[in-house]
Amino acid sequence: MSTALVWFRRDLRLTDQPALAQALAAADTVIPVYIHAPHEEGAWAPGAASRWWLHHSLAALETELRVRGSRLVLREGPALAALEALIAETGATAVFWNRLYEPAVIARDKAVKQALAERGIEAVSCNGHLLFEPWTIRNGAGDPYRVFTPFWKACTAELGTVPAPLPAPERLPAVPPAVASLGLAALGLLPKIRWDAGLAAAWLPGEAGAMATLSQFVEEAIGAYDVDRNRPDLPGSSRLSPYLHFGELSPRQALAAASVPGVGDSAGAASFVRELGWREFAHHLLFHFPHTPDEPLDARFAGLAWREDPAELEAWRRGRTGYPIVDAGMRELWATGWMHNRVRMIVASLLTKNLFAHWRHGARWFWDTLVDADLANNTLGWQWTAGCGADAAPYYRIFNPLLQAEKFDPGRAYIRRWVPELAALPDKYVHCPWQAPAEVLLAAGVRLGQDYPLPIVDPRSSRDDALRRFEGLKRPGQ
Ligand SMILES: Cc1cc2nc3c(=O)[nH]c(=O)nc-3n(C[C@H](O)[C@H](O)[C@H](O)COP(=O)(O)OP(=O)(O)OC[C@H]3O[C@@H](n4cnc5c(N)ncnc54)[C@H](O)[C@@H]3O)c2cc1C
User: Fold this and answer.
1) Has residue 477 got a pLDDT over 60?
2) CA of 192 to the centre of ligand 1 (A)
3) Which of 90, 135, 289, 454 has a CA-to-CA distance to 162 between 20 and 30 Å?
4) Is residue 392 lining ligand 1, measured as CB closer than 6 Å?
5) What per-residue confidence (pLDDT) applies to 140?
6) Hey, how many other C-beta atoms are within 10 angstroms of the C-beta on 267?
């Protein structure tokens, strides 16, 4: 009788789970284990919203395992010590897991693999998190890509080789009763002050929630995704990001769902698959440029003198900047742990280009508040918007929050939902209340500076100021 451990990490699903599938093929007894070791993720241990999600996702995984005759063994880190203890207790001869790509996790996993090999334990890592391993996609010179379009062109040529998702096992071997597990509450993932009601109302963490979200998206929204994905007032995007981050859904499953006949030939489906490509690109960059969560990829930006203004930063965090589309986004984030992609770009542009605050301040706030906080995607998003990353928005692209609101929230429904103190204003002024005549403000019950702030910064002069600062940077080759 052989025994194997399956080390669950951010692959909290049973469908298309290569590590689980390989363990089941190799051993009679398979023991699913999750090891809580946030300190091993370095400076980027999961933030508060991610911990909330993780708690519920582990509970969901435990339920799915029990339905199939197994259970989840929870242990506390360090990971290597926990695995060694389990190996000693169970006589396991192999450990299976799916790879992750954060620099601290890669270093930890390498050390674990080596230590297990030295003890004669088979350590098998699989690809369950990406369509393409970051080291398999290279440009003609053999270097990693730094620009999305050629990267994605190289990937699309290989899309046909992506394996079909594996089915979930119907039954699983029982875990021997003697193998002890911590209770989920012992991991202390839930907030002590319960601010999480909004998250619970918005999300159903776990594989069942992922499948329901994917099915609904494919049935109702994917066809128009190429157009509606930019509209925060519509349910136009998939909202799959936390499920993909925690591996409750694999990118192969998302790709397969977007490729079925009748769906896959639409412009919407093609556009959705391209966004999965951005996720691949973000992981490619993080793998090849592991310093980027903390330092700009474009080294010219390292010496930039960002402004430090704690009061402005706090106003941005709290959704009190006086720019309704920005405040709507920041409040959506605080209430639900998620923000629409278009609005992420707008709030990030205001912070880094109009307020000229360091992009790391924004990345850190997102890290703590997003349920989909993901080191690869977050780093790419912030460096792209700040203009200092790979394939970045040029430094002179500064989102105008008024024009963005006019274009992408045409009926102002998004702002009205999240900034209700402006809801009674006519459409013409909801996104720019400071431009409203006094009698219009009075009629709508809005006292600017009291009920709702005046703009924190003048858009035009701050834009000119930012451009002057950016222009001081040397252009490549200078
Ligand atoms: C400043 C900033 C910070 C961001 N931080 C994160 C983050 O921490 N975690 C995160 O998952 N995404 C992040 N993004 C990317 C993007 O905003 C979210 O992935 C998207 O809004 C999630 O919503 P969705 O699932 O409905 O996306 P959809 O539009 O339905 O896209 C499908 C999937 O593709 C991936 N994807 C889409 N857009 C991007 C992108 N630009 N970069 C990388 N992957 C993408 C996501 O996994 C997403 O779930 C950030 C973007 C910006 C501008």
Assistant:
1) no
2) 29
3) 289
4) no
5) 92
6) 12
pLDDT for 475: 59
- pTM flag (> 0.90): yes
* pLDDT range class, residue 20, cuts 50, 70, 90: very high
- Please report, rounded to a whole number, the percentage of residues in the chain having pLDDT higher than 90: 90
With CA atoms as reference, report the closest residue to 246 among 288, 277, 281, 203.
203
CB 3 within 8 A of CB 91: yes
CATH of 130-165+205-289, one of 1.10.3720.10, 1.25.40.80, 3.40.50.720, 1.10.8.60: 1.25.40.80
Residue whose structure tokens are 């993932």: 189
**Kind and range of the H or E run holding 75:** strand 73-76
In which residue ranges of the chain is CATH 3.40.50.620 found?
3-129
DSSP 379-436: HHHHHHHHT-STTPPPTT----HHHHHHHHSTT-HHHHHH-GGGTTS-HHHHT-GGGS
- The catalytic residue positions are 275, 278, 306, 341, 359, 382
Is 98:129 a contact under the CB 8 Å cutoff?
yes
Q: Is the CB of 360 under 6 A from ligand 1?
A: no
Is the predicted pLDDT of residue 1 greater than 50, yes or no? yes
- Letter for the amino acid at 328? A
- Determine the average pLDDT of the residues in 203-224: 98
**Chain mean position to CA 5:** 28
Place of tokens 């402006």: 422
Which residues of the chain does CATH 1.25.40.80 include? 130-165+205-289
* CATH number at 299-471: 1.10.579.10
Helix H or strand E segment including 4: strand 3-8
pLDDT in tens, 127-157: 999 999 999 999 999 999 999 999 999 999 9
Nearest to 60 by CA among 247, 214, 251: 247
CATH of domain 3-129: 3.40.50.620
- Residue of 275, 292, 338 to mutate, ligand 1, most atoms within 8 A of C-beta: 275
Q: How does pLDDT run across 96-105, given as a tens digit for each residue?
A: 999 999 999 9
For residue 183, pLDDT beyond 90: yes
Q: What residue spans in the chain does CATH classification 1.10.579.10 cover?
A: 299-471
